[in-house]
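Re: export button greyed out
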Amino acid sequence: MEPTVIDTISGVLPYAVDLVAVLLLALGIKGLAKVRSARSANGLAALALGLAVLGLLFELQPPLLAWLGIAVGAAAGGLAGLLTARRVPMTAMPQTVALFNGCGGMASLLVALGVALYGGVAADAGAVLVERLSIAISVFVGAITFTGSLVAMAKLQGWIDTPGWTQSRLRHAVNIALAVAALVGVVALPADPGGAALWLLLLASGLLGVGVTLPIGGADMPVVISLLNSYSGVAAAAAGFVVGSQLLIVAGAMVGAAGLILTQVMCTAMNRSLLSVLFGGALGAAGGGKVGGGGDEAGYTSITSCSPEECALALECAERVVFVPGYGLAVAQAQHALSELAKLLQANGTEVSYAIHPVAGRMPGHMNVLLAEADVPYEQLVEMDAINPEFPRTDVVIVLGANDVVNPDAKTDSSSPLYGMPVLEVDQARQVFVVKRSLGAGYAGIKNALFELPQTAMLFGDAKVVLNGLASELRELGVGRVKAA
Amino acid sequence: MSGFSQALWVLLLGSLLGLELIGKVPPTLHTPLMSGANAISGITVLASLTLLARADGNPALLLLGAVSLGFALFNVVGGFLVTDRMLAMFRRPGGKPGSGTAGGR
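Workaround output, generated via the alternate export path:
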């Protein structure tokens, strides 16, 4: 039978749609890496995904019953996504990305499970082997992504701590055993999809995701999330092999590779190697001390504490002030109070800028997002390499809820676990005020030598309360008012 | 699946493309980029839809497909919206382009 023009068009159309979608996705990822185009690029990528979905629906012509499943799944997932995206506070962004990511991995996993349990679509023997191997890989990566992401989310949210046993060498033995079990599952699965091998693989991979993520300290969590993000791309690509979608393979591979690059960039910023993040355990835990959390206050000897009045007086006559915001600022919801204080100082003729450490907040760029939310002008945010030479001519530095990223030990003390990490050299400034709730250790659990320097004074209290106090002290001093003649 | 080697080429070229696409990113954009890339990895909706369309009336497959589609769409919709929310904050007062921390463009 001679194909009609209509047949030819509907035969070619899916390929054309896929090609356009790939092109748009690539342009989207590229655009997301530039400040000016990032927002429209995000829209472009979303458009590409929508286009790919429409193209696929046109190609598959799903039967009525399938539409029911599509409607239910789409409504539930779409609505949940919409609500989560609207409601989640900006401070919780890293764990939100982790949650979304885990769900993406889960989706790939479920598809592979479905094909494994209820029969594939492959025609000849060679294709069957490929299909079943793809299923095995998809289950393996999907399960690790899912459980690993959930553990990462729970850790960032503060729901779970780092259990002590995970810091012993025992964990390597457990993880290796799990990895071997998973490998056995991968090898055995092609002979018997839907049998015991599948469940062994599923269980071992899921536990492996937990076992690998759980020992990693909170400070390294962004790297883990970025890596898991890369995995979910790999899981999507594997699912592409399972259902035979080249578009899925391309997009999954692109995300997987891009995620790897981003992970590498983050490791570089923290001066950590990916291997030490994954297998080195939590920072500062090597000596058997507590990880994160309280820490002990006894380690400090010469701490100077001061009142907001003293700090306000120093601010009033400062010509150049640098704020160093950390995650503590975000937790205290003090971005807006900070922004107000900065405006007062600027009205007084003070030069104000913000020093942004590459990993300030909980992931690179997180602090920029938080400060942007508080209307801090983009131009005042200065990166570490640009601001470090400026500290010697800075009158007052105010450290807000940051700790490890201003620790001078990272430069001078080779025995410190932080040694070698690039830090903000605030100890070069004339005067340093550290706003902090207590003398508890930072996220890495390490003592900070900055607090004991003679030019450093501590302002104990909640960041928001302290900042509001500083602002009202300054107003009492007459700062920010129209200059009285 | 037909054309396995072709699919492997697609995988290879896709990976290389991904490596090339984001060579230089200003740190400011790392979080939004991660979030956006994460949303794109939700493209596994395509796999969920394929599973649903080929379920052929099998209730277990329909259920698995629907749940999987829900998870994937949660990732896609949430991911893109949250990325947009973040990027919407990077507006520059006075519209002065190319300043601030955007060193790596």
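Chain B touches chain A through 95 residues (CB under 8 Å). The button fix ships in the next patch.
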